[in-house]
Write a structure and sequence with these properties.
This protein has 298 residues and is of the alpha/beta class. Helices cover 41% and strands 21% of the residues. Pfam families: HTH_1, LysR_substrate.
């Protein structure tokens, strides 16, 4: 009796569709096909059908399907690692395209370190008037947000631009100084930053001051460090505009050398097409010029 021939290949391997890969990433991110369907605005059967089509195009099972769970196979994990950068690239493309479509109602996003962002907050009413009728979004972070892809509109940075950034424009708008402050003239304890002293000028400065003193705590967030020092925990490294303005503090080590840093206002060239952004940039430059004495310390 003749037996029907059996095709050893279960799948016909073809180039996978990006739309199917995008759905695959959504299923992994949301943990189930139902949740991915809700997030993408599609039906669960459609999601299941697209995942099946992706598996057939790749010739692989991407998920182990249980009654109440959906787990990646070893192959599925490998495909996830390969596809994840594509998903990130797609989101960058979307942000970049949006950044080139001027939206008169979009907020003006300013990114700066926490020290600078806290200073800006004291003058937020003045900056708000420059931005009207839109709002300002403050993004305090030490991470260098990507202006080209539209993560922020204005960056206040302490260093000049690296080479190869022709689409960015920068202007020096002033300086900001840092020093060590405490509630007593001769503090016995120090609040140190968590950074390795070999990797940060500020951390190295504090480490030198801390020799012979107790490290009471390590606090990276400047506003929290300020509050701890004000409570009497120990001496802390603070911006001069903040330390000098607080009558509870004594400046126990003056700013010097690299601790007086240049501040640059950085924008993408296309920002000149957004009047709200340029008005805020000009207001920032005016603010830093007017506040230089306080920013660099007495």
């Amino acid at each position: 009796m003749a037996h029907a021939s059996h095709d050893p290949f279960r799948f016909a391997i073809t180039e996978p569709s990006w739309d199917d890969l995008r759905i695959f990433l959504a299923v992994v991110a949301h943990g189930s096909m139902n949740s991915a369907a809700k997030a993408l605005g599609q039906s669960q059967p459609t999601i299941a059908r697209r995942i099946k089509a992706l598996e057939e195009s790749l010739g692989l099972d991407l998920f182990q399907r249980g009654p109440n769970n959906l787990d990646l196979t070893e192959a599925g994990q490998a495909i996830l690692e390969a596809a994840a950068p594509m998903g990130e690239a797609a989101s960058v493309i979307s942000r970049t395209a949006a950044a080139y479509r001027p939206d008169p109602d979009a907020p003006v996003r300013i990114t700066a370190t926490s020290s600078v962002a806290m200073f800006l907050s004291l003058h937020s009413a003045e900056l708000h008037k420059a931005a009207e009728p839109v709002e300002i979004a403050y993004i305090p972070t030490r991470r260098r947000l990507d202006l080209a892809s539209g993560e922020a509109d204005i960056a206040l940075r302490m260093r000049t631009l690296p080479e190869g950034t022709d689409d960015l424009v920068a202007r020096k708008i002033g300086q900001i100084a840092f020093a060590i402050y405490a509630t007593t003239d001769n503090p016995e304890a120090v609040i140190a930053p968590p950074e390795d002293p070999t990797l940060s000028r500020q951390a190295a400065y504090v480490a030198e001051f801390a020799q012979g003193r107790t490290i009471a705590a390590r606090i990276g967030d400047m506003p929290i460090r300020y509050q701890a020092a004000k409570a009497g925990l120990g001496a802390a490294f603070l911006p001069c505009w903040l330390g000098d303005s607080d009558p509870d503090f004594v400046q126990v080590m003056k700013p010097e050398g690299d601790l007086i840093e240049d501040v640059f206002l950085v924008m993408h060239r296309r920002s000149r097409n957004r009047p709200n952004v340029t008005r805020v940039a000009n207001a920032l430059a005016t603010l830093f010029k007017r506040s230089q004495k306080a920013l660099v310390g007495g």
